[in-house]
Amino acid sequence: MNQDAPQADDGRPDSSARCSSLSDLASEIREINEANGWSVLRAEDWSDRYKVPGILALVHSEISEALEGFRADDRENFLEEMADVLIRVLDCVGGLTADFDSVVRAKLEKNRRRSHRHGGKRV
Ligand SMILES: [Mg+2]
């Protein structure tokens, strides 16, 4: 960890000083993962029938870990696992688009126009 980086009150690095977009965060995540020896998704991997489903299984595993954190009433662990979810998602989509922010913005606008509870769904 960079000791000169700004830090939040809890001692963790203050990422708000350097994170400006989901796409920037995706690039940083992919750099870190590659530096740590992990393979990252490439645009051409979209045609592979197993790579994206494998990543989605890993996203699901992080969701399950978050659920276990919630079940244990461990908010810190829950938040860390939710961060893992976001990291895995951004690692994946960062290989498919350089502008995931626009994708999210477009979906938010679509959601804004949807009906109350999306047509009366319970959850
Ligand atoms: Mg995890």
Provide a descriptive summary of the structure in words.
The chain starts with 21 loop residues before the first helix and ends with a helix. The model has no long low-confidence stretch (mean pLDDT 90). The longest helix has 21 residues. The chain is globular and about 45 Å long. It contains 5 helices and no strands. It has 123 residues and is mostly helical. The protein has a domain of 66 residues. Helix 1 packs across helix 3 and helix 2 runs antiparallel to helix 3.
Provide key terms for this protein.
123 residues, mainly alpha, 5 helices, 58% helix, 0% strand, binds magnesium ion
List the helices and strands and how they pair.
Elements: H1 22-35, H2 51-71, H3 75-93, H4 100-112, H5 117-120
Helix pairs in contact: 1-3, 2-3
Count of separate DSSP helical elements: 5
Q: Give the % helix.
A: 55-70%
Q: Would you tell me the overall average pLDDT? A: 90
Q: Which oligomeric state applies?
A: single chain
Quick summary:
This protein is an all-alpha fold and 123 residues long.
